[in-house]
Amino acid sequence: MELITLAIDFIIHIDRYLETFVATYGAWVYALLFLIIFVETGVVVMPFLPGDSLLFVVGAMCGVGLMNYPVAVGLLFVAAVLGDQSNYLMGRYFGPKVFQWENSRFFNKNAFDKAHNFYERYGGITIILARFAPFLRTFAPFVAGVSDMNRSKFTWYNLLGGALWVGGIVTAGFLFGNIPVVKANLEKIIWAMILIPGLVVIYGAWKAGRAEKTAPRA
Length: 218
Fold this sequence. Notes:
Elements: H1 2-12, H2 14-25, H3 28-42, H4 51-63, H5 69-99, H6 109-130, H7 136-146, H8 151-176, H9 180-184, H10 186-214
Helix pairs in contact: 2-4, 3-5, 4-8, 5-7, 5-8, 6-7, 6-8
């Protein structure tokens, strides 16, 4: 319970923690940020790290000269792309190992075919939009790997999604993060960045579930 409380406090007050780390360790902050973004996007069991809010705060710190904007954007873009690529490769490797394909009672060929077809058809936009949704951005590349999405197609959308996510949110923090009204309400903004995308994903899943239930059966 104490660890959970500490984790929540870190996410909500990430600006204070990050500023303290910069003051104490200087340039080592870039290594820490690289690790956080890589682990959140690249390790399927670590979906709770503060990706969006972290990028926004990094941008705000760049705006006041505590960090270097081009260096931060470049490094975090690389971390995000490598993280998703790693997650995708783990999905491609462990998917067949877990299911043992047709020889396993856990493998559902119909479900696999549906997932594969979905990612071949809509995987690109899924990979891009998932970047902006906590939890979903951690699982989407792994599922893309499990469902055997085309590798070159995944890589292209991974690069595009990483650029939009890192570049967009860091730049937003750089431009708006130090406006007095934003600074005064940063905690609320962080909560919004966490909750709103999550609610959108839940609503989308609920709507899709209802549509599937009401669809006429062949």
